[in-house]
Amino acid sequence: MEPLRRTGPHVWLTLAVAAAAVAGVLALLITAARLPLLAGALPRESFYKLLVGHVTFSLEVWLLSCSVALVLHRSNVPSLPLAPALAALGAAGMLAGLALPGRPVMVDYFPYVDSPFYVGGYILFGIGVALALWPCLRSQAPWGPRSAAIAYGATLTAVAVGLARAGPASPQAALWAGGHALQFVYVIALALAWYELAGLGGSDRPLARQAFTLAAGLSWTPLWLYLAPQVEEIPRWAAANAAMGFALSLPTLLHLRVLAPRILRVPGLEGAALRWSVGLYLLGGLLAPLGAGNTLQVTAHYHAMLVGGVTTAFMGGVLRILGQHGVPVQREAGRLQVHLFGLGVVLTVAALLVAAGHGLPRKAYLAGGHPWSVPMLLMTAAAGFAAVGGAWFLGCAGTSLRYLYRNGRTGPPAKRWGVRKASPWGL
Q1: What are the beta bridge partners of residue 112?
Q2: d(CA 241, CA 227)
Q3: Collapsing DSSP states into helix, strand and coil, what is residue 123?
Q4: Range 168-190 average pLDDT
Q5: Alpha carbons 367 and 388: distance in angstroms, whole number
Q6: What is the pLDDT of residues 19-44, one digit of tens each?
Q7: Is the pLDDT score of 339 beyond 70?
Q8: What radius of gyration do the chain's Cα atoms show?
Q9: CB 302 within 8 A of CB 352
Q10: Where exactly are the structural domains of the chain?
Q11: Where would I find the H helices in 167-310?
Q12: Which stretches within 57-102 are classed as H helix?
């Protein structure tokens, strides 16, 4: 196996693992601040800053970094050298923005801190991802990576048009289309991870190519809604949100049709990650209709789909990519870690639904006594399972990355570590 390039997947995997660590620490602080005995101990602005950082580093930096790593792994197109450096500098800027003065702005998909450090960090990170995916637009790039680049182009375009149409006066509407377009990037990257974990090809499978093409095309549909005269009302259009959810499900179901014969047959780490990912993603899809209200039902939905379904696939994908490039990987520990993390996500989703049933709204700052003591304690216990599983993953991935950086080369052949060599599937 050819060694990893300096601008190849391992740089993005490093950024992804670091982002996952930051997101995990912030999640624990947020959960602790919501416990009955600690409610109100953290100032309101600090609580919302932690919440902004958690969402950014879990649903943007972690997921996008893993997506880029998967795209580069499946593509024969080299990345631009400046891309990972700009992305890392952007992530550092967002961390600085959390520590420095600034007003947290809680909007869906792209919450931010109103400070030049945080906003500038967002911009730099976005440019870094764009530079990494840009070469995949070439005609010789495989189908899946090219579709991811197209969908990310739709995301940047939607953000630019949204800011021009809605402006800072309505950030929820300005970032709505970009947030929905970004979900198509994750659907494409998730499919790449599923094919990677299942050991299935796809260049000769018309259904897989159709699914990638459909996702790339549908990623541009949110932009059309900005033709409406009152764009600030778009986030409240139930029909538009339902249509976007349906559009996201179509390519995913096509990929699952291709993968169905293999899902239960894949062994080891890859099989555990694949089955947990598919199960949690489908669970999140089933919970989507419950998220009509602004309660923790919404949080349960995207925790099952993104924090659970996409993240478990990416966890398995991270370790598999490293193993395929000859880096020693703790495969059995990785398999057990995926099981523990998946169980923690299921329990967290259940606790969120219980809390939502008691009327607890999402994004809520709780000061003083409140009537949701039992649901909050359940949520804390469930988050503990997920935290242990996540920390275990960080240990496994961090050990492998440390080996790679210390040795400056790949390790023993991939087959010694129980990972088959990659084949050019063209996905």
Answers
A1: 105
A2: 16
A3: helix
A4: 91
A5: 28
A6: 999 999 998 888 777 766 666 677 88
A7: yes
A8: 20
A9: no
A10: 6-74+77-140, 142-265, 268-427
A11: 171-174, 176-198, 206-218, 238-263, 268-287, 296-302
A12: 63-74, 82-99
